[in-house]
Amino acid sequence: MTSEVHRRAFLQLLALAGAGTAVLPGTAEAGTGFPLVTRGKAATIVVSAGDRPGVRRVVGDLAADVERVTGVRPAVSIDVVPAHGPVVLVGTLGHSPLVDDLVRAGRLDVTGVAGKWETSLSQVVDGTLVLTGSDQRGVIYGVYEISRRIGVSPWYWWADVPPRRSAELHLPGERFSLGTPRVKYRGFFINDENPALGTWAPAYFGPGKAPGYPGGFTHEFFAKVFETLLRLRANYLWPAVWGRAFAEDDPLNHATAKEYGVVMGTSHEAPMMRGIEEWNRHAVAAVRDAAGNIVTPGHDPYGGTGEWSFRRNGEAIKAYWADGIRRMAREDFEGVVTLGMRGNGDVGLPDGDGIELMREILATEREILARELSTDVPQVWTLYKEVQRYWAQGLRPADDVIVVFTDDNWGNIRKHPDLSLPPHPGGYGLYYHFDYVGGGRNYKWVDTTLIANTWEQLNQAVSYGNDRLWVVNVGDMKGNELPLQFFLDYAWDPSALPVSRLSTWEREFASANFGAALASDIASVLHDYGRLQSRRKPELLNRKITLQADGTIEYDDQATPFSLVNYRELDTVTDEWQALAARASKISARLPAACRDAYFELVLYEVEASAYLYALRRAEFTNLLYAAQGRASANGLAAVAEARFADDLALAAKYNTGVAGGKWNGFQTQPHIDYGDVARYGPNAPWQQPEKDNVALPDVLFPAVRRVPVPSGAEMGVAVDGSEQWWPAAPGRPVLPEFSPFQSTPAQYVDVFNRGRTPFRCTVTAGAPWVRVEPRGGRVDEELRMTVRIDWARAPKGTTTVPITVSGAGRSVVVDAVVRSADLPLSWRHGFVEAGGHVSMEADHGDAIAAAGVSWRRIPDLGRTGAGMTPFPVTAASREVGAGPRLEYRMTLVTAGPVTVWAYLSPRGNVLQGAGLRYAVSVDDAVPQVVNITKATGADDTTMNRQWERTTSDNVNLTSTRHVVAAPGPHVLKIWMIDPAVVVQKLVVDTGGLRPSYLGPPESKRLGKP
Predict the structure, then answer these.
(1) Second label for 959, Cα 20 to 30 Å away, from 195, 379, 747, 863?
(2) Residues 345/385, Cβ–Cβ less than 8 Å
(3) Are strands 185-190 and 469-475 parallel, antiparallel or unpaired?
(4) Contact 414/405 with Cβ under 8 angstroms?
């Protein structure tokens, strides 16, 4: 305890110091501001012995951070203020006598801080830097803000980010506070942690302490998690659950959370502060026959049947829950108690989903809490998957319980609070995902989050009053550093992160971790990485999803979703990844050596590994196509695919053993290539990671490449743009996609290939001089690609079919080129022009017309190929058809008659209270057609049916309407808002020539002023 002598002496020293007040947003020039370190000496850090444990602990981190930056470690003094030299006083209002004395003396103004939640204050008072706060976490956040500003990244340990070295540290400033966080409880869920984190952590920190469970995570591991959590200004954790039990794996785990000042919780399926593994380790469930009779007895520590069933084993379950709450009281840690119940293994309840059953479960849990605890604790009920039905059916928990809405596991919020009803007094929360295990397929290898999408969804949550508790599933945590920090930054202060600042935030993230010199370049790489990755999870690059004519969904786990032959789609996306990897690699070479480990962990690995994977898939699926055509080049592509697979393994090995002195050995073990390999690992292969007996398997190349026998002679084959067939084996004449002077698609091509080992020469003759083929034949060892172009100045008007004769190795193939040359009148030369039988338009390239205070707003990168457009404000009421704001797209059609308008929409579910999410579409002045997206797609995020798997896997809701265009010429396509939350990514008008592809055709040529 601080003595009265020490306190009086401290006040006297302050009076003698007589310096003014200063504060810090940053660091000051040497010789100015508060001298944290100057001339090789550091200020002394003073803390009270009676302060909160998290505050007493964090001063050690501050001293270590100063030493990391300067090489000088400040002394830490308990209660005693030195008579000479600068002082940093760290203390909590109401718990630090030294700080409280300053307040009483009128020297420290705590207006706007005292009585608030987690609110910090930094101020220089008479020469002493005071770091205080309304509570212990307010102080902790203020301390870590100093660490950030002197150059210590929150990721200094988890991503090996080196500190910015400086000989002296001077803190400028005036009175400064980080403010009060908007979201009260903010945190993350470490989950799906096998094999990566589950392999690495026990090896690095030592095995778990529970007998027989060496894979448990110890308090040394969680100490690193807690520190990073607090440095990110979070306060709440759901600990790992895959075969792990936080309370049992190390008896010091809860005590460590208390020491750090972290709020503990348990996941949505683990009620009453007990992880499900605590039950599974000690219970064996009885086996029952079809009539419900026990045929094999079970057991549990409470004399029950061992079943995780409230109906069949209720008394044991109640006793189990009561033990969890007694432990919470006994160990006196801060926590948020999860209510409700789900089935064992994160599934629905085995007792059915009757509302009365859940009502009884909630009431029972509340009774236990009232009986076992002397004080109230915050409680949460999470509406995950099937649990949301109870809410929809009218079940409401007690007024003080936080109701947590969720996303659909793929970053799309499922439901918002009904703004037409009084808000729930306990407030609302959000459970979100950056990692997932389940249908349609796991995604847990690398970061696949697009922060523009996260921003749009979090903005919706806040706008609908959802701000009491946010938690995000981050998988292994490492690998999701950028989206996690963004999530927590936004939760702290949404107003500081409008959509216009997203690129600034990326640049600040890069600068904080790698310095300002290359921050813009690194931010650009991270930005493009997120944009490219959001098109499709890398685990799904070998799944093609097709909607059949009868409405069923077909999966092909040995095919690419990107077209091999249309719009050069697979080539284009793969080339984009290769270009990004080249940029990332060049930056690495320019960075100081000390930064390269961190750069590899935070940037380079995920970029290069993804680029290798795309190159692998291109070679693999092109190999399979070419093998089916008998091309000699197929075998070389098999070797390329195998080489890229070897590159993938080598890069993972570098992560495990070549970075940070081997610190992360065993971490990069997540399989991501062999998904769908049923023959190797069974019926769960379409969605589950490669594993047997719950242990991950190392990847193999799947589907396997093919090698074809190549005869000794020469045999010519011909393939053309837009077709997987080859000639002369296929019937009829090959036809190239239609040529147009307005086409934006890549130039059409003809492939001449060898099906044998002996080279041959081919010749090409075009049936018109204005059709140009480059090259015009030549030697064919394995294959020769020839590009076909039109000299439009010489081509006749109208539609002409020109034969192109390809000859070689004793055979000839005639390819037809259909050339459509149109001379558009001047009045038609505005907007997007039809070519190739379609018009393709990015959503943000139209005109937005507001109505009654509601408008369409552009969200950059929200579409798979561009920006997204969505109505604002997001809480706007639904509109009658034709009365809401609209998007207008000017286009010129050269085809009349029936057309299909395809709307590419973000895969949002029915977040509102109606029967589905709706928009309307019209052409010119026709009556708008209403589309209920929910009904049109059939996607159900509760049953998680195949329709839902399709929309989330493809990251698009693809809906269509049919229209009749009376005549060629200028037309206007209109998209009408009916409901908010609809995000338009892209629009394609099919006039009869649209070819299948994943992303849709490239944007059409646009004439006139945009």
Answers:
(1) 747
(2) no
(3) parallel
(4) yes
For residue range 30-70, list pLDDT tens digits in order: 556 899 999 999 999 999 999 999 999 999 999 999 999 99
Strands (E), 644-747: 691-692, 695-696, 716-720
Quick check: 903 and 863 in contact, CB under 8 A? Answer: no
Q: Where are the alpha helices (DSSP H) in 232-352?
A: 246-249, 253-260, 276-280, 314-331
Q: What angle do CA 653, 654, 656 make, to 5 degrees?
A: 65
Q: Which residue has the tokens 């910090």?
A: 120
pLDDT digits (tens, 9 = 90+) for 802-833: 999 999 999 999 999 999 998 899 999 999 99
Ordered strands of the 771-774 beta sheet: 716-720, 748-754, 783-790, 771-774
Q: Shortest CA distance to 438 belongs to which of 413, 486, 475?
A: 475
Cα distances (Å, whole numbers) of residue 666 to 604, 621, 742, 923: 18, 30, 53, 57
* The amino acid at 851: A
Say if residue 927 is exposed, middle or buried (CB neighbours under 10 Å; 0-12, 13-18, 19+).
exposed
- Rounded Cα distance between 253 and 275, Å, is 13
State the pTM of this model.
0.96
Tell me if 901 sits within 8 A of 921, measured CB to CB: yes
Residues 774-778 have a mean pLDDT of 96
What mean pLDDT, rounded, does the chain reach? 95
For 322, phi then psi, to 5°, come to: -60, -35
Q: Select from 563, 520, 655 the least CA-distant residue to 601.
A: 655
Q: How confident is the model at residue 350 (pLDDT cuts 50, 70, 90)?
A: confident
pLDDT at 4 over 80: no
Chain mean position to CA 703: 27
